Amino acid sequence: MQSLLSALRSQRAFKALHYREFRLVTGCQMFGNLGTWMDELSRGWLIYQLTDSVVQLGLVRGVQFIPLLLFSPIAGSAADRYSRKTLLLVSQAVNALLFAALALLIFTGQVAPWHVYVTAVLAGIMQVIQHPARTSLVADAVPLEFLTNAIGLTSVIYNGARLTGPALAGALIAYAGTDSAYAVQAAFLFVATVWAFMLQPVPPATGKSHREPFAQSIVKGWQYAWHNESVRAGILCTTAVSLLIFPFATLLPVFARDLLGVGASGQGLLLGAMGIGALISAALITLAGHKLARGKVMLDSSLAYGVAIVIFAYTPWYWLSLIIMIVAGYYHVHANALVNTVVQSYSSAEYRGRSMALFNMSQMLSTAGSMLIGLLAAAIGPRHAVAAMAVAGTLAIVLLIVSMPHARKIK
């Protein structure tokens, strides 16, 4: 066993873990993501228990995206101007308190729907604040040569939490009640806060720009990202995938119940298959990501993702749908992780927080894409809607390749 551990430690993929600060950041991410992904299930279950309304079930998810649109530019500028450790520490601590407050309200029978909405908005704000701070801390914690491997490791953690968090929340709700799920979420966020407290403070890298007005700082960050061709290519790539390809997942309940006839359990297996592909992809990036031509892989993976979803749209066989979902999960993470690496690698430390905020905003365009695909499905049917948007996303990537030939040469 000792020799196995030594062999693993000697692998390049795990050398990022030799750095204390990176271990602490991954600890924050591990427990923070578990709590956040548990909330994906717990909050919806709670509002449905309280209201029996499918409209409010969708609304409580939607309100969490409002802070993303309003506060992401501010959060990115803050990550470049102030202590990233402090931003991460405070945002995780507040989230822990919010989850604890909901657990107490449920336990005492005092919880009301407005509590769920208010805490959803506040938790969304805290997520927006911590994302650019935490992702920038990854680049601060390891040498640039290990950044791709480090991002691969964080992607493994993220996708592992995405698989286990909702399952854990569901088991806790079934056997001990919603209050217990929120109590465990609060405990996870408290542990993440302790890990953040142990981080060494990193001085802001903005130099004199921290004295600029916030609005000017935000605009300068956008200008920097647009004029930096590598960063612009990465963000445009993610925009196309998030807006046009990934929203197919919104219609999975329709495919599972009405088109493939496998019900809710079948939908769960479809999501699980995508998660398996995501984990395989993240593991391969961790092991060999430093050898990849980042620009070529992020663009080719996006193209393959789009093609896979077009095939998924029309397959009549459930077993083939499962296979395609594994492929889709694989290419989704391959594209996303490589874009993440490109944006961080080619952003100077002074602008990294603002660049990552833009990256996060481009990812969240999937919300707009979800609304669009719902309207298209009503007009032309779910299969045609998924295929049409995936084709549009694939063509957008082709246009990006043609208009920015440098993008495929990004190292």
- What composes the largest sheet? none
Over the alpha carbons, how many angstroms does the gyration radius reach?
Answer: 21 Å
Q: What fold name stands as the CATH topology of the largest domain?
A: Growth Hormone, Chain: A
> Between the first and last Cα atoms, what is the distance in angstroms?
37 Å
Which CATH class of the largest domain applies here? Answer: Mainly Alpha
Strand content: under 5%
In total, how many domains does the architecture comprise? 2
The CATH homologous superfamily of the largest domain corresponds to: MFS general substrate transporter like domains
Mean pLDDT: 79
If you had to describe this structure to a student in words, what would you say it looks like?
- With 411 residues, this protein is an all-alpha fold.
- The chain folds into two domains: 11-204, Growth Hormone, Chain: A, CATH 1.20.1250; 212-411, MFS general substrate transporter like domains (Growth Hormone, Chain: A).
- It has 17 helices and no strands.
- The chain has helices at residues 2-10, 20-51, 54-62, 65-81, 84-107, 113-141, 147-176, 178-197, 214-227, 229-245, 252-259, 263-288, 294-314, 318-345, 352-363, 366-380, 382-403.
- Helix 2 (20-51) runs antiparallel to helix 3 (54-62), helix 4 runs antiparallel to helix 15 (352-363) and helix 16 packs across helix 17 (382-403).
- 51% of the residues are buried.
